Amino acid sequence: MPTVIKGQPTSAEVIERLKADGRPVLLAFSCGKDSLGAWCALREAGIDVIPAYLWYLPHLAFVDDEIAHYEKLFGTKIHRYPHPSFYRMIAEGIDQPPARLRAIAQLDMIEPSYADTWSAIKDDLGLPQDTWVADGVRAADSIVRRASFVRNGVMKRTTHKVSPIADMLKVELVELLDKNGVDLPCDYDIWGRSFDGIDYRFVEPMSRELPDDYAYLKRWFPLVDVELERGRALSEMSSAKPSDVDGKTDYQRRNKAEQRRRAVATDGNAVMCVCFGDRKSHDKWRGIVGDGDVISGDRVAKAFPQVCDGRRAQRPAEPRFGRLGRSPLYSLKQTDSLEADSFSEAECILEALEGADGRGHAFTDTNDYVCVWFHDHNELDDFLRTRRLMRFGRLYVDGSAWMRSIR
Q1: Is residue 148 exposed (0-12), middle (13-18) or buried (19+ Cβ within 10 Å)?
Q2: Which end of the chain is more exposed for a tag (fewer CB within 10 A), N or C?
Q3: Residue 89, domain extent
Q4: What are phi and psi of 10, to 5 degrees?
Q5: Cβ–Cβ contacts within 10 Å for residue 361, how many?
Q6: How many other β-carbons are positioned within 10 Å of the β-carbon of residue 335?
Q7: What is the mean pLDDT of the chain?
Q8: What is the DSSP letter of 393?
Q9: Do 79 and 125 touch, CB atoms closer than 8 A?
Q10: What is the pLDDT of residues 248-266, one digit of tens each?
């Protein structure tokens, strides 16, 4: 019995409308069970499906293997394009050593939106802008998704997004995949779901199960090891806490705990890099805090006592790079294939990142730094505000200026 979505057509009716439209349907393909189910349902109806996979990194071996497997299984090419988060993570300096910030600024990257991305994909594939983009989102996944369908619709005509298996239950999805001989990717053995980011939930299992891919990930995000240390420490702290006994049901407690774990795991602004431009300042830091390239915020908080309540607004300092050279991206020759150009662009970005040498006059132009991890970004901000340290930076802090301020 499918899920009833108030005021919305059934999945059978949605698919019939797409079939009557008589045009190809783009599929937002993730290698996950839901997008696989959507592909099967559309294909069974005789609809021409054009799958497109949005990658977080261009060449993870396990993803390449999965794409090749499903291309063979369905007899269809799966197009690959960069996920908007790829540009966001690079531009925001996620898990990057300070010496790379100058190179990132010089790249002068544009961060596309989801709408921009799918519009560009349609142009690249020669499809009209009103082509439907299908996904595998199902109402049964959560109350939030079900409410979203009721509020926004299963077929969104303004954005041309459609969820053709929105009312399908998990048991029906499994039966559909089995009937079509579709197996699930290795993601489900490793993570219990499809790969969807570079936070602790994904990188910790990857470091154990896919060491070669983890090594490739570290080329892009060298400080991801800090996220591992932070995640492991927080997991130990969480398991040591007593469970809630405030009258909530087991489901409510599990759901709340999972929400907390996800919020902490995906908090990309909870690590502070303290940058040193001279040996004297780093020696002074060691004398106050102690040794260690990666240390906890608790340890640093004990070494530097509060000086105010932190309520007064403080603007964090930012590195000043001065005049930057021409972006290497401007020298790339474009072809008539956005898909191919995206891979070339990624290679250019990685070359620029790995070529960063720390030379320059900004406080981040250094290879001498200490990473300090906090429980979340609120704890980090509270530490900086109550010590009046925002004047030295936030995620990247001028450690030399900080140490000089201490008498």
Answers
A1: middle
A2: C
A3: 11-186
A4: -70, 165
A5: 11
A6: 10
A7: 93
A8: B
A9: yes
A10: 666 455 555 555 555 555 6
